[in-house]
């Protein structure tokens, strides 16, 4: 019964978020985030439909979870890039950023292939191997985003900030219970079971409250940066980074 209530609540919130995104035309500004919420609406509905059959629910849950992970990492990247687009002109940043993501995902896939556990269903094994690395990546992007905001004194932008914050809460709310369960055993079983659901609902409420309110003037859509503006932004980032690491070295 609790599972049905949680699934129903998730369907309603994802439907509201998707409608608000479409109504305010954020589906074009944040297409991956819009796709994530539409997929979540459909995936959660599929889980609810088969919730009375534990056998079917098991397979539907793990098959749909793969889409949640992939669209989630694309969405949090989308939120990061909408604020720090200038970073992507720096070759070292592109190699570091995408290289780290690619390496982590490849390691998870290779581990899944070569460490077969016969009694586990293949998709279940792959999702388990991807779940923790992708949540780590989302938490890392959230940390990088917060660091860059402070370092470069970026003005508050409600919508991308809310997207990244929501995925950060969800990722941390999933990782901490798993680590606690791994380190301390069954005494944290209930915490590991319910904490991710609480973090998930907090995430949905953060997104819904952020996109529900009218767009403030400072967050209004602006035309893409000109090449000169992009170059100036990159120069500013480089100057701040050099000053930051120079001070750290002197210390």
Description:
82% of the residues lie in helices and 0% in strands. The protein has helices at residues 2-23, 26-29, 31-49, 54-83, 91-114, 122-152, 158-184, 189-212, 227-250. The protein is an all-alpha fold and 251 residues long.
Q: What would you call the structural class?
A: mainly alpha
Strand content: under 5%
Q: What percent of residues adopt helix (DSSP H or I)?
A: over 70%
Oligomer: single chain
Biggest sheet details: none
- Cα-atom radius of gyration: 20 Å
Order of helices and strands: HHHHHHHHH
Q: What shape does the CA trace take?
A: globular
DSSP helical segment count: 9
Mean pLDDT: 78
Poorly predicted tracts of residues = 220-224
Annotation keywords:
251 residues; mainly alpha; 82% helix; globular
